[in-house]
Write a structure and sequence with these properties.
- With 314 residues, this protein is an alpha/beta fold.
- It folds into two domains: 182 residues, FAD/NAD(P)-binding domain (3-Layer(bba) Sandwich), CATH 3.50.50; 119 residues, FAD/NAD(P)-binding domain.
- Helix content is 25%, strand content 27%.
- The chain has seven helices and 19 strands.
- The strands form five sheets. Strands 1, 2, 5, 6, 7, 8 and 19 form a seven-stranded mixed sheet that branches.
- The relative contact order is 0.18.
């Protein structure tokens, strides 16, 4: 084997709760894992402020601090963490190949994919300025902070409907901003939204600007049917126009669903390629929580260990 090829038992692609948890379990099982963090070490939690729904942190914790704790724990057991991206893979044979952005080639007996998913944003300057200051892409994560306050949700699909319904239990009024004159959400979700008294649906409505200095104060919207602008007073603004799984480099090698999420077999993390396992938001388009991502990271490492044992590699 060429000198510039690195051979490993377990390669973890991506960080965040799934990747770091997989690393903890793989390292403790003596799989000597190497973890490539990708372009955003720590994943979406690095742009999250207060995390209050992860068990074990009774006072809550800042997202970046929590990910730093995860990283330190993975390193404590010997995980080799590398701050670089994997840009290409080849899953043709039993030995799985991956290449880094610097051109290094890695041959791995098992691979755990934990590349996550990225929230889609509207692309407004004010949206970025008020991120974590009233602008969020996760009602389950952040809705608690807006109890008793009016909020807005933008989107017309099932995700937006679910976010609006969740927030309606916490907030006196939820403004659902739908760009068209109909929703893309399933019939049952639309029915639930329309039956909920404190959800106001604003049809044909586009967001022009989220207003506020250090926190969200209101949102300026435009009705594309009447060509009228108006301002809605809200304290929270939730973007629910979907997520994009970070799985593009795997599309030629493993089975993905119509929206790019990795398909796993049954209750396992096994993909359609032997020895390749998927965890976290790259394969979860339903829950998308730090605690569920960590759980599947654990599962992926255990699945990898079993696979290596069955093959007689360890």
């Amino acid at each position: 084997m060429a000198e510039n090829i690195e051979k490993v038992k377990c390669l973890i692609i991506g960080s965040g709760p799934a990747g770091y948890t997989a690393a903890v379990y793989a390292a403790r099982a003596n799989l000597d894992p190497i973890l490539y963090t990708g372009s955003e070490p720590g994943g979406q939690l690095m742009i999250t402020t207060d995390v209050e729904n992860y068990p074990g942190y009774p006072e809550g914790i800042m997202g970046p601090q929590m990910m730093d704790d995860f990283r330190k724990q993975a390193e404590r057991f010997g995980t080799d963490i590398r701050y670089e991206m994997i840009t290409k893979v080849d899953f043709t044979g039993p030995i799985h190949k991956a290449w880094t952005e610097a051109g290094a080639e890695i041959h791995a007996d098992t691979i755990v994919i934990s590349t996550g998913a990225s929230a889609k944003w509207l692309g407004l300057e004010s949206e970025q300025q008020l991120m974590n200051k009233g602008v969020s892409a996760c009602a389950v994560c952040d809705g608690f902070f807006y109890r008793g306050k009016e909020v807005a949700v933008v989107g017309g699909g099932d995700t937006a409907a679910e976010e609006a319904l969740y927030l309606s239990k916490l907030c006196p009024q939820v403004h659902l901003l739908v760009r068209r004159d109909e929703m893309r959400a399933s019939a049952i979700m639309q029915e639930r939204v329309l039956k909920t008294e404190n959800i106001i649906v604003h049809w044909n409505t586009e967001t022009k600007e989220i207003q506020g200095d250090d926190s969200v104060e209101s949102v300026k919207v435009f009705n594309n049917k009447t060509n009228e602008e108006s301002v809605i007073d809200v304290k929270g603004f939730f973007v629910a126009i979907g997520h994009k799984p970070n799985t593009d480099i795997f599309k030629d090698w493993i089975d993905l669903d119509d929206t790019g999420y990795i398909i796993t077999k049954g209750k396992s993390t096994q993909t359609n390629r032997e020895g390749v396992f998927a965890s976290g938001d790259a394969q979860d388009n339903i829950y998308r929580q730090a605690v569920t991502a960590a759980g599947t990271g654990c599962m992926a490492a255990l699945d990898a260990e079993r696979y290596l044992t069955e093959k007689g590699i360890i």
